Amino acid sequence: MDNNVDWDKVNRGKVRYGFALELYKSGKELMPTELGRIEAFVDYVMGGVEEDQDESDNKKEVVKRIPIKDKVEETAKSNEKAYIREMISLDSEGLNEKDKKSVLDALESGKITMDNLQASLDKIFEMKKKYK
Length: 132
Fold this sequence. Notes:
Layout: H1 7-25, H2 32-47, E1 50-54, E2 61-65, H3 68-91, H4 97-108, H5 117-129
Antiparallel strand pairs: 1-2
Helix pairs in contact: 1-2, 2-3, 3-5
């Protein structure tokens, strides 16, 4: 038996698979926002509820916090940015240096978002057509 197995990572993968499978069964797609929600639920299942202890006046009070909404939003934004970056990077291959710099500058400045990603990819496609 391999003693170098990261069982926490293996178990997180199993939990993640379960949530992704249910999302698939419900007919939804694995969009960046859904991936963030899944990851937040995996964190909750694997870590439980965070507890803070306040020891004021020699009395221990347990305060329960469930940061799922914040975690979902944070993870979704991170996944969304990574998805946009990957799509733009892949599609900008084959552009000349000037056009590629223009596209990457727009990406870095935040001008390319999920709302206009398809239009941006279409524009890159049109830019490539002029090279042929």
